[in-house]
RNA sequence: GGUCCGUUCGUCUAGGGGUUAGGACACCAGAUUUUCAUUCUGGUAACACGGGUUCGAUUCCCGUACGGACUACCA
């Protein structure tokens, strides 16, 4: 079998979309599975849309996600350069070859001329308005102009493009690894521009030439490329590279969670979740977009989630390490239909991966938050807090968000709950409990509990009735980790002081 | 409009000519617990529609509907 060589080929026009991360992932999985190579090629042939920083962003995003590049802009390699703008001369050579063989031609039409051609055809009721075998003879190009005229135009530096001379009525077959056989008649393919007037190639030429030169074995890309795939096949044929032509796999799209359509940044913003792997500020508009990384998604969780959007192993296993994913992955098990992006599932994966971390790793997350808050904390305490909270946490920041009370006495209390449950019995019980606590020099979860039971017998009030008020007094909220453990962590003095505060302040509000 | 691609619970999906159509997320209910944002148990919920082919179709074929992508000197 031919060496597996795949490429991820984004254009540096902004932040990397999450769908791009999935495409990169599938490429990477295939490469690793067959001990092949994963390339990163930057498709920056559109100079107008170039965004500074985008290339670096893409590289950093992939690195964060754990998608390793074997050859590419960041790495170099035997087929360098891997940035298309650095390969300009190469494309010119191949375009010339097509020109010489009559498989391409010069075209001099201005934008206005193209526009009026389209309008004319539209007015005639023509079903498509393309530059093609039916229209090309009415246009200004090297097929219609005198040779001398063409020569003169070229020499005088007039703007021109090079278009592919697509034959009429030719059946083009394409065997897509995901969709099966796709047939298109060449009449449906227009005379695509191969070289633009600025001397840069278009995607179509550059991608075919580079994939051939870089010995790409599989082209795994989004479904939006399917309509132009026949054009690419034709290009391989024209160059005489059909034997070396890579296999195609067109991935189903990522759709928005509600309604229909491609997942867009707008949808993500509306629903409040990120769509880019990392934080990103558009250098032009200064618009800021949050990233999965900064929002607390673990890369392995995100990848696992993404992998399952369109692919599944056919077993009931859902949690996959990278290695397991590589072993289980096949292109055949990628589905055909678009997948809606449901952030809930991503959160669930995140939770699963977070829980699988060691207590020490979790503590590190807590320390990250504490550092920002300038709060000191011994390791032992941090670990205790994480153990107490790990079952109820989705993001690393949750340890701090939901566990602030371990460090600072609450200032906000669940008023509704107090109004409902704060009564004479609570006061009686908590007053007594406070006294019991005071009698101890130190408390741990165990003696806090036995003291609670003792107080219950003493006051003849069931502890269950006051637990929630005790929780509100200590933490401000109605729910949280084990209360006795909470008391152990915050300590006796702090517990007593918070209960006292409640006794003084809650009472006033009720009566 | 044209071309191409698609359609199994709300979502991700398994399955495949005869199945009680399976799992996961979400949701709901019950149990446990001092709370639930834990855990356990249970539940609601799907083959888009119409025609073929067939003894039998959710599965195969054809249409229709719906959805999507593409239709640039963007990728």
Please give a structural write-up.
This protein has helices spanning 18-33, 54-65, 88-100, 111-123, 147-155, 203-213, 229-239, 265-271, 299-307, 322-328, 343-355, 359-373, 379-389, 398-401, 415-421, 424-438, 445-459, 463-475, 483-490, 492-510; strands spanning 5-8, 37-40, 71-72, 104-107, 161-164, 171-176, 180-185, 193-195, 218-222, 247-251, 254-255, 280-281, 288-289, 339-340. Among the domains are: 5-73 and 207-254, Rossmann fold (3-Layer(aba) Sandwich), CATH 3.40.50.620; 88-203, Glutamyl-tRNA Synthetase, Domain 3 (Glutamyl-tRNA Synthetase, domain 3), CATH 3.90.800.10; 409-511, Arc Repressor Mutant, subunit A. It starts with a strand and ends with a helix. Helix 2 (54-65) links the parallel strand 2 (37-40) and strand 3. The strands form six sheets. It has a three-stranded parallel β-sheet. With 511 residues, the chain is mostly helical. The radius of gyration is 32 Å and the shape is elongated. The mean pLDDT is 94. The chain contains 20 helices and 14 strands. Helix 1 (18-33) packs across helix 10 and helix 6 (203-213) packs across helix 7 (229-239). It binds one RNA strand of 75 nucleotides through helix 4, strand 7, helix 6, strand 14 and helix 11.
Structural class: mainly alpha
Straight-line N-to-C gap: 83 Å
How many strand elements?
14
Rg over C-alpha atoms, rounded to the nearest angstrom: 32 Å
Mass-distribution shape: elongated
Largest sheet geometry: 3 strands, parallel
Looking at the chains present, what oligomeric state does this protein adopt?
single chain
